Amino acid sequence: MILCCINIRARSSSAGTAATAAFGTPIQVAIDGPAASGKSSTAQLVAARLGFSYIDSGALSAAFITLKALNSNPTRRKTGPPLSGPPTSPSRPSTSRPILARLARFARRPNCFSTQGRDAGHSLTSRTRHVSEIAAIPAVRSALLVLKRRLASEANVVMDGRDIGTSVFPDAKVKVYLDASPEVRARRRLAELMGAGQGNSVQMGLEEMVAELRARDLADTQRKESPLRCAEDAVRLDTSAMTQAEVVERIVRLVEEKVLARPQ
User: Fold this and answer.
1) What is the three-state SS of 168-205?
2) Which among 30, 37, 31, 32 is positioned nearest to 213, based on CA atoms?
3) Are the C-beta atoms of residues 134 and 127 closer than 8 Å to each other?
4) Which residues pair with 175 in a beta bridge?
5) What Cα–Cα distance (Å) separates residue 176 from each residue in 46, 164, 237?
6) How far apart are CA 4 and CA 105, in angstroms?
7) Domain 28-70+121-259, what fold?
8) Domain locations in the chain?
9) Relative to the CA of 122, which of 4, 40, 177, 261 has its CA 20 to 30 Å away?
């Protein structure tokens, strides 16, 4: 059995419904930034405050790549029908409707991910270099782009990533770019790992984490396909000296000013 559940939570609120009615189409809030800038946790809290759905594009990418890998290697998939057509190479994934529809259905379930009955939720949401490298393959990025836009066409959403405001939703009503110094991000990432009970498995100190984040930043900003950058019309927030509550409040106010206020 393969079970995949992406972190997408649909909520309803009078404000969110009013925003959709006012503009006639679902609203997208794009939150971008480098690794460990607090995008996912912030986006989730913003979505909850606004009554929007939250889409973790990193988890979505990891799930897509994992399912495609399982599909291309039948020996690792004990039961269940193929995800789509014949096995495909990770470098040339198909963009067939069945796999996109299946991922979309999975995305509406509670947070979980398991393969053969084993919980793999943490592995899925971990931002590994392997997932980043595979997601940079043009064919993979194209397939993920279709999926992300399809999911966001059905409800007001807050989506975080590295190219949401520049490539996925270039016309998003609200774009935010979160940033912080590598040192601050490294401390936050280590604290996050400790808080998740993985302190014993962390084999690097602060300096090593800073070096890893700098390397990740370099790779993300210099990749050929949709490199990490702040959209020209995005609001850039340096969160180095801000609490998460302050960041969330700033973004919520921004959405309220740009989107939720009724046109005069």
Assistant:
1) HCCCCCEEEEEECCHHHHHHHHHHHHHHCCCHHHCCCC
2) 37
3) no
4) 30
5) 12, 10, 7
6) 9
7) Rossmann fold (3.40.50)
8) 28-70+121-259
9) 177
- Percent of the chain at pLDDT exceeding 90: 46
CA angle 132, 51, 18 (to 5 degrees): 120
- Which residues on adjacent β-strands are paired with residue 237? 178
Residue pLDDT, tens place only, 217-260: 999 999 888 899 999 999 999 999 999 999 999 999 999 999 87
CA-nearest of 3, 234, 55, 18 to 161 is 55
Write the pLDDT tens digit of every residue in 93-117. 444 555 555 555 554 443 444 444 4
DSSP letter for each residue of the chain: -EEEE-SEE----HHHHHHHHHHSS--EEEEE-STTSSHHHHHHHHHHHHT-EEEEHHHHHHHHHHHHHHHH-GGG--SS--SSSS---TTS----HHHHHHHHHHHTS-SEEEETTEE-HHHHHS--HHHHHHHTSHHHHHHHHHHHHHHHTSS-EEEEESSIIIII-TT-SEEEEEE--HHHHHHHHHHHHHHTT-GGG----HHHHHHHHHHHHHHHHH-SSS-----TTSEEEE-TT--HHHHHHHHHHHHIIIIISPP-
Give pLDDT tens digits for 127-185: 455 666 777 778 888 888 998 999 899 899 999 999 999 999 999 999 999 999 999 99
pTM: 0.75
Tell the residue number behind the tokens 């990891």, with chain if given.
62
